[in-house]
User: Which sequence fits this backbone?
């Protein structure tokens, strides 16, 4: 499994949560999975990971963040050490399958496979987005160098080529699958996200605590989603009612100038929990009065939606948060608002225990369903 | 019997200094509650050492009474407190004051829960129908749990008149104690307590069933954080917490009510009762009792007055620049002296520099930081005209207008509301317009006289002061609907 980030035990973003989830699924099907992360960094890499330490890459990442993946992909392809490392990893593992998370490892992999020759392992492309379509949505949040459209087309060419070269393409949503079919002529398999959180004991308190849990990484749209919902601070909540943010989104929100404008009020109603081990995250979600998903950009793995649905708590979300979750529909513990005022009122109602949780078993799509999809997509898979 | 607790922290903080703005309104509120409240009044003070509010000590209670009495033109008692208990009831022909003192002492020995019955009994048998006396009894009641001396002094304050008192006696302070909050009590907070309030404690008090009535003067610091003296996010939080916790928020103008709804309630989706009332002009109302004191260096000389804390929002710089320009245009003998009355505030380094180094303003600028009410009344009455170029106001100081002195004000909505649109109102950023208008008033005495007549004859500020009624309704719970 190739990924453009390290794959540790605990996910720090939706992307690696999806990749970790996939790894567990493949292992459940009977495969032994070796992961190779390919990403910028210096010093010693963990395991088989490949670090890209090109100063020009660092500069490009800073100046053109919206296309960080593309710069990384090109740097990896042209890095002889990276090629050697990946060649060695493939030769050592002699894999039956190569799973590519995101398209960014593809240029390097393509070159290495060409150099290796011989029979190619089956190739699976695990698409987290339609990357070329996502890029413009990121422009408002980060530096973009001139000539963005040229690079956007390069991104599309890269992911299209990978999708067309792959034996199996896993799409994260029906929307993405339709795009691939209509634009690239590729029939993708929709594999909806599933939560990877472990079962934990029920909270000791009989009544949920008065907080809304939010789980997200510091990905800019996640930060922006919070301020979309609470542009004037958290005054909609009373003292003693809070939003508890798990993941790197918490420190990012606190560091944002929009938080500072209402700092005194927000600090009294906001708790930044930071990245948490899976078990702790599971406890935070299970003990919450509600879980909120102020998702404004309909892209990415949206793993936080899977975790929210897993929690069994009332979920307050935007329509965008449900992209890729055809089995989740409003009602029965799922409260949807596309207006910030309506969203805030739902959050307040949720914190005060006024929203009914979903009935037991409502989050019907789980690991068993995902495994069935993979088995069908990969004839010969065990599990 | 439930109580009205009044947060006297700010009144006590400012003490005997001449009250302006919020503190002056607080004096009005305390006086109004004395006169109208349907239950005893208990002063509380925020004390970090005590972990929040505590009952005011006897000494502090006396201080509040004295301060409020002076603000209303009443002269506090001159005589020292009696060292012994008052004469027995059998003493022949006791004065009203002596009877009050005796009653007050009795009240002081009465448990708070029984004080209303005691009051009714005593009112029915011992006291003549006398408004002053009744108010005195209210004073006695609210301090009923304090020392007898306090009660006696409170009672006498209301019935005695005489020369100003000697310096406060250095009596050892009475021990403070935690407030006994009870369901149905009312807590009135009118002091913009963002510097000291403990919201957790306040929330706990409200959770006990205490009804919070707060006063909002304006939310300017939220709309215009650049003029705030302290971090504006702290001020914003104060308003939001008060909106959440208050049963009623009283504002001092319709402009402030609208702003509070728009800036605090609506964005935070807080369903809060916000009621606007008009505060009477206390200085004018008590001018006769306060009297006036001439400022000798201005006697017989033309001057224009601007009374406000010298802080960035009040826009003193505009007047300094206008006066510089006028000094170029007018003969020195024609240019009135520009008089600033107010304490130094924040973000006014430029004003200080100008005041010290402005060459053209030599002899044409006076700054009085400690004017008394009596001096202020003289200044208002004797000014050619008054000025108020503030950028933003919740209420707006139109005291000069009540004394019949014309004003030029900024055209902010609250100023138009306060002046009833009768006076010239200009954009506070438009220095040329101010220069032109002021020059006209100086060069055209007839125009000034027309404005003076308007101020005198048409200004209706002495109409209904609805704030008192709104306060009474809020405190009694009538506003709950």
Assistant:
């Amino acid at each position: 499994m190739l990924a453009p980030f390290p794959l540790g035990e605990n996910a720090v973003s939706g992307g690696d949560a999806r990749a970790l989830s996939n790894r567990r699924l493949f292992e459940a099907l009977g495969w032994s999975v070796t992961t190779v992360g390919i990403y910028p960094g210096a010093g010693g890499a963990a395991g088989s990971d490949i670090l890209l330490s090109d100063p020009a890459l660092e500069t490009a990442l800073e100046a053109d963040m919206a296309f960080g993946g593309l710069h990384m992909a090109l740097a990896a392809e042209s890095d002889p050490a990276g090629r050697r490392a990946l060649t060695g990893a493939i030769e050592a593992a002699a894999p039956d399958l190569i799973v590519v998370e995101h398209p960014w490892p593809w240029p390097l992999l393509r070159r290495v496979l060409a150099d290796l020759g011989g029979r190619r392992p089956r190739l699976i492309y695990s698409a987290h987005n339609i990357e070329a379509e996502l890029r413009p949505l990121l422009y408002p949040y980060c530096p973009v160098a001139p000539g963005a459209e040229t690079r956007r087309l390069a991104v599309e060419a890269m992911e299209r080529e990978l999708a067309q070269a792959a034996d199996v393409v896993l799409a994260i949503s029906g929307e993405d699958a339709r795009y691939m079919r209509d634009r690239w002529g590729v029939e993708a398999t929709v594999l909806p996200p599933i939560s990877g959180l472990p079962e934990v004991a029920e909270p000791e308190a009989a009544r949920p605590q008065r907080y809304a849990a939010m789980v997200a990484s510091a990905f800019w749209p996640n930060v922006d989603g919070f301020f979309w919902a609470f542009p004037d601070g958290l005054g909609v909540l009373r003292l003693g009612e809070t939003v508890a943010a798990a993941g790197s989104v918490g420190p990012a929100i606190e560091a944002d100038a929009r938080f500072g404008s209402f700092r005194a009020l927000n600090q009294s109603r906001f708790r930044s929990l930071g990245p948490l081990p899976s078990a702790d995250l599971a406890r935070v979600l299970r003990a919450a009065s509600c879980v909120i998903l102020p998702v404004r950009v309909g892209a990415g793995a949206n793993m936080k939606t899977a975790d929210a649905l897993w929690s069994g708590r009332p979920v307050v979300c935007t329509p965008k948060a449900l992209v890729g979750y055809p089995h989740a529909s409003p009602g029965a513990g799922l409260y949807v608002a596309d207006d910030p005022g309506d969203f805030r009122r739902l959050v307040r109602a949720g914190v005060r225990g006024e929203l009914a949780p979903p009935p037991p078993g409502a989050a019907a799509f789980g690991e068993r369903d995902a495994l069935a999809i993979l088995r069908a997509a990969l004839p010969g898979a065990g599990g | 019997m439930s109580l009205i607790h009044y947060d006297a922290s700010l009144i006590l903080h400012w003490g005997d200094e001449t009250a302006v703005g919020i503190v002056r309104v607080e004096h009005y509120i305390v006086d109004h509650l004395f006169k109208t409240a349907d239950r005893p009044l208990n002063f509380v003070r925020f004390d970090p050492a005590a972990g929040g509010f505590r009952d005011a000590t006897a000494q502090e209670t006396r201080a509040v009474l004295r301060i409020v009495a002076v603000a209303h033109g009443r002269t506090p008692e001159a005589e020292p407190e009696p060292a012994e208990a008052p004469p027995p009831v059998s003493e022949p022909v006791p004065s009203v004051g002596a009877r009050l003192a005796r009653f007050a002492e009795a009240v002081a020995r009465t448990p708070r829960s029984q004080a209303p019955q005691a009051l009714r009994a005593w009112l029915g048998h011992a006291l003549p129908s006398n408004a002053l006396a009744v108010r005195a009894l209210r004073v006695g009641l609210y301090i009923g749990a304090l020392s007898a001396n306090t009660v006696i002094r409170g009672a006498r304050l209301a019935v005695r008149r005489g020369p100003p008192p000697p310096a406060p006696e250095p009596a050892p302070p009475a021990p403070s104690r935690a407030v006994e909050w009870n369901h149905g009590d009312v807590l009135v907070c009118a002091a913009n307590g963002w510097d000291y309030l403990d919201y957790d404690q306040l929330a706990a008090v409200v959770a006990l069933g205490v009804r919070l009535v707060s006063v909002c003067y304006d939310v300017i610091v939220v709309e215009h954080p650049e003029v705030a003296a302290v971090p504006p996010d702290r001020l914003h939080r104060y308003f939001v917490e008060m909106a959440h916790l208050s049963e009623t928020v009283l504002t001092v103008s319709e402009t402030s009510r609208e702003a509070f709804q728009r800036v605090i309630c609506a964005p935070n989706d807080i369903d809060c009762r916000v009621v606007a009332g008009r505060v009477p002009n206390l200085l004018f109302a008590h001018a006769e009792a306060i009297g006036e004191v001439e400022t000798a260096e201005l006697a017989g000389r033309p001057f224009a007055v601007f009374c406000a804390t010298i802080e960035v929002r009040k826009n003193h710089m505009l007047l300094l620049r206008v006066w510089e320009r006028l000094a170029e245009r007018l003969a020195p003998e024609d240019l009135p002296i520009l008089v600033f009355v107010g304490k130094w505030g924040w973000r006014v380094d430029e004003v200080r520099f100008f005041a010290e180094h402005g060459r053209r303003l030599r002899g044409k600028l006076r700054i009085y930081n400690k004017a008394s009410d009596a001096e202020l009344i003289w200044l208002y009455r004797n000014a050619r005209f008054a000025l108020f170029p503030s950028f933003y106001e919740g209420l707006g100081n139109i005291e000069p207008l009540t004394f019949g002195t014309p004003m030029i004000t900024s055209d902010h909505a609250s100023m138009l509301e306060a002046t009833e649109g009768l006076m010239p109102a200009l954009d506070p950023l438009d220095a040329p317009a101010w220069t032109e208008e002021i020059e006209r008033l100086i060069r055209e005495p007839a125009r000034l006289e027309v404005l003076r007549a308007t101020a005198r004859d048409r200004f209706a500020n002495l109409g209904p002061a609805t704030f008192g009624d709104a306060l009474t309704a809020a405190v009694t719970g009538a506003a709950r609907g």
In short: The interface with chain A takes residues 199-200, 203, 231, 233-234, 236-237, 240-241, 243-244, 264, 267-270 of chain B (CB under 8 Å). DSSP finds 21 helices and 14 strands in chain B.
